[in-house]
Every structure is written in structure tokens, then in C-alpha cells.
Amino acid sequence: MNPDLQDLYQQMIMDHNKNPRNFRVMPDATSVAEGFNPLCGDHLHVYIKMKNGRIEDVSFEGDGCAISKASASMMTGILKGKTGGEAKALFEEVRAMLSRDVNSPVDTEKLGKLAVFAGVCEFPSRVKCASLAWHTMVEGLEPTGKQVTTE
Ligand code: ZN
Fold first, then answer.
1. Could you tell me the residue range of the domain that residue 60 belongs to?
2. pLDDT attached to residue 131
């Protein structure tokens, strides 16, 4: 990856970690899901408020490393207004990006700002950090009441 771009991506992740967006408990959420990544200790709750089949509001709270928090922060910003199906499709894009071979291209048109996590695929232990919020959000769309764990 171009080093300037890598720098910019790093800065965006640091910024979201320091000032996470939508970082709050949502008392009127229609569902709450809990996610845990025992390898790193990332632990978060994702709150979703559905209205007429769309995600009207989504937030998260919890504790974790910079990557897990930045990922949750960016995810919540992007999902507002999307349908459950669109949210799942985006999850699949993120999963493909994180599990791809490092030299294969990223679909920046579909991923938008989420492409900042493209470099994470080089660090298998961090992939779970970056995907935790997404797995948790998917559980929140169709809650089974189970804790999501990356193990
Ligand atoms: Zn982590």
C-alpha cells in the first residue's frame, strides 16, 4: 500500500479510537448484542434500533483495543439508515476484505471509509479485533441472546 495512504488510515483509526462515534448505551434499542474477543480482551455491546425495516439508530459501548473501537465507531456511523439486508451485505464485504490475500485489491467503492482496515489482513490476530463489532451487529439483527465470541 502507498505509505501516505497507510499513514492517513492509521490516523483515522487513532482518531476513531480516541473519539469514538455513537459510543453510548441506547435505552430504547430494539436489540442489544454482546461480543467478546478473548484473544485480545475486546468486549462490547452493540445497540440497534430498527424502524420500518431500517436501522434508525445504532451505537456501541465497551472496552477494547484501538482497532476494535475504531471499527465499531466507523461501523455505527455507516449503518444508520440501512436495511438489515444491506447491513449484512456490508458485513460480508468487510469480512472478505479482512480475510483476503494482502496483495489482492479492495473494493473501495463498496467499502468506502471502511477500507482503512484493509491493512489489518496482514495481522491475523487483529482481524478478530476489526471484525468483532460486525459479528456482534449481525447477531443484533436477528438476536439469539447468545454472546458472540470470536473463538
Ligand atoms: Zn483487540
1. 3-143
2. 97
Q: What is the mean pLDDT of the chain?
A: 94
**Bridging pattern class, strands 31-37 and 148-149:** parallel
For the chain, the C-alpha Rg in angstroms (whole number) is 14
Q: What is the CATH number of the domain that holds 112?
A: 3.90.1010.10
Asked if 80 contacts 108 with a C-beta cutoff of 8 angstroms, the reply is no
Could you tell me the distance, in angstroms and rounded to a whole number, from the CA of residue 53 to the centre of ligand 1?
A: 31
Neighbouring residues of the ion ligand 1, judged by CB less than 5 Å: 40, 42, 65, 68, 129
Domain assignment present for 151: no
Please check whether residue 23 is in contact with residue 115, taking contact to mean a CB–CB distance below 8 angstroms.
no
Name the band, by pLDDT with cuts 50, 70 and 90, for residue 125: confident
CA of 129 to the centre of ligand 1 (A): 4
Residue with cell 487483529: 126
pLDDT higher than threshold 70 for residue 1: no
Domain count across the chain:
1
**114 CA to centre of ligand 1 in angstroms:** 17
